[in-house]
Design goal:
This protein is mainly alpha-helical and about 220 residues long. Helices cover about 70% and strands about 5% of the residues. It is built from eight helices and three strands; from the N terminus they run H-H-E-E-H-H-H-E-H-H-H. Keywords: Cell junction, Membrane, Transmembrane, Transmembrane helix.
Length: about 220
């Protein structure tokens, strides 16, 4: 009970010993209110992992006339054209290693965040639930940013390579963006309660909320 009160004081930044306003019942109602979003976050994280892993093993990140290539291949040329193959590098460029590393980083940390979110679902004490959900949300955001950076580096490097002509981005690249977006959705769902609480403290949101409250009061009168 003491740990619960201390946790609530920390989360609400209240030093008063009176927790009737921010007490256990308040947070229990809050947990029930945000539960559908967190369940959707679990679905989003599972989808993100599947999409990112599928993207990593997919062999059609880029394709064109007579060729296609995945993330692990370093020769994006028409293999039937001897002159084109002569432009192929002997090993993967540094930018490609960076893209692979960032995608693996996103998948690994996304899996870690998924474990934390499942701990939040299976844990009973509310403070621990909130801790697991918010921690998972932060890590999902990092995974989303990591995958997004990788997916921005890849086309930038391809477009600067003048030897690769007449190309299009394929299914593997699109799957990567799908995984990044689902990671972002999972991050928002896991931390939505904290996002709403923090945004309600800003002056702009307070003014909007006061305006809506005044309008409702006038309509009632």
């Amino acid at each position: 009970m003491t740990s619960m009160k201390n946790f609530l004081k920390f989360k609400t930044r209240q030093n008063s010993s009176d927790l009737r306003k921010f007490g256990e019942e308040y947070y229990m109602r809050e947990a029930k209110l945000w539960r559908p979003f967190r369940l959707f976050g679990v679905f989003a994280e599972a989808s993100a992992l599947v999409l990112v892993l599928s993207s990593l093993v997919n062999s059609r990140w880029i394709h064109g006339s007579g060729f296609q290539g995945g993330l692990w291949e370093y020769c994006f040329q028409n293999m039937s054209d001897i002159e084109a193959v002569s432009f192929c590098p002997d090993r993967k460029p540094h930018w490609q290693n960076a893209v692979i590393g960032l995608m693996i980083f996103a998948a690994t940390f996304g899996f870690l965040a998924s474990v934390l979110s499942m701990c939040g679902v299976c844990t009973n004490p509310l403070p621990r639930k909130i801790y697991y959900f918010h921690s998972a949300g932060e890590i999902f955001l990092i995974s989303s940013l990591s995958a997004s950076i990788a997916l921005l580096i890849f086309p930038a490097a391809i477009e600067m390579d003048k030897t690769i002509k007449g190309h299009q981005y394929g299914v593997g690249y699109c799957l990567g963006w799908g995984g990044a977006l689902f990671f972002l959705a999972a991050a928002v769902c896991m931390s939505l309660d904290d996002i709403v609480r923090q945004s309600s403290r800003t002056k702009c949101c307070k003014w909007c909320w006061k305006g809506k409250t005044n309008d409702r009061n006038q309509l009632r009168q």
